[in-house]
Amino acid sequence: MLDIFSDFDEYIEIDYTYNDNNVFRLHYKATVIILFGFTVLLGCSQYFGDPIDCIHGEDVPENVMKSYCWIHSTFTLPDAYDKRVGIDVPHPGIDKHTPGENKRYHAYYQWVIFLLFFQALLFYVPRYIWEAVDDGKIKSLTQDVGPGVLQPDDRAECRMLLVDYLKSHIGDHNEYLLIFTLLEMYNFLNVVGQIYIMDLLFGREFTTFGIDVLRFTNMDQENRTDPMIKVFPRMTKCTFHSFGFSGDVQKHDALCILPINVLNEKLYVFLWFWFVVLAALSAGMLVFRFVTILWPAARTYVLKQKCDFVDMTDLNFVMKHIKVGDWFVLHLLTKNVDFFYFKEVIHDFANELKEDAKLNRKGSLEDYKALP
């Protein structure tokens, strides 16, 4: 799966054959592009910029202190966030540390780009599986049937081939729908799970991060504490120990500026809102999926809404003789063919089913008369 970004241009181009839905595409396409873009942006800032600068005494070389604090992480003091900046403390979360006082270490900035890349892979997994399961099914069923592509006789021939496929595979698509439903459930659990995991990594501050930011923007400027500073502090502390000339252990405190967190906080504010909206849309899509699976009338209604021109007599007859998986294939067809073509498909499909029903009744009657 590591080669999924080998041809990024091909990945982001518009695919005119749809074998899923808009919410599904938000997961594997829009979200993956966003996360991958953030990975590149933060990677450039981290490895080609200046992600950390430390202020300290002259006893420790600057490059040594800077490298040490970057590798071993920095910390803030949670009790110092409520103190007055410029009076009690020099910066939010920065104060003199006393033994036993709680510290909050910040080491995420070292591996956040790897986390974002891994998140992108998790969002792409359903697409990878679904492409293998679909194996070009919908594309082959709808290929070259767009308006103006084929002559009427050729379109009629393609339509009859499609109807023959639908009739001969009635009841064979339930597993097809089941796998897609499981992947939709994965999408929902994945985005909710990623919100929870980031909440753990960011000190139980991420689940309400976006709400806290909105609340912060509406507060009085003189009586507010920026919630983004708690999660992504711009100023932190670092303690370095060394040996003095007499062999005793010496303690060196440094103030470290983290310019990279100015970028981190903006990106994760966006991700918070994006993930929340994505989770809500995914939940709504799951409700839609279960309603259409459990309620046959809802399936008929959905197809009718997709194609107002379809004859309801034909549609109702077709819906009585097919399974829920077959309906799912018809639903995907409506995304890839024009209304008039779909109306003709339903009409021909209904006629084929009626002919089969007549033959079955005739055969049953003849078998009945032949009984001794």
Automatic annotation (TrEMBL):
Keywords from UniProt, A to Z, are: Cell junction, Cell membrane, Gap junction, Ion channel, Ion transport, Membrane, Transmembrane, Transmembrane helix, Transport
Which PROSITE patterns does the annotation name?
PANNEXIN (PS51013)
**TM annotation in the entry:** 30-48, 108-130, 176-197, 271-295
Q: What does this protein do?
A: Structural component of the gap junctions.
Which N-terminal stretch is annotated as signal sequence?
none
**What protein am I looking at?**
Innexin
Membership in a protein family: Belongs to the pannexin family.
Concerning Pfam families, the annotation shows:
Innexin
Subcellular location, record wording? Cell junction, Gap junction; Cell membrane
Q: Which GO terms describe its cellular component?
A: gap junction; plasma membrane
Instruction: List the membrane topology term(s).
Output: Multi-pass membrane protein
A single GO molecular-function term is:
gap junction channel activity
| Superkingdom in the source lineage | Eukaryota
Q: Which sequence ranges form a coiled-coil region, renumbered to this chain?
A: none
Q: Which GO terms describe its biological process?
A: monoatomic ion transmembrane transport; phototransduction
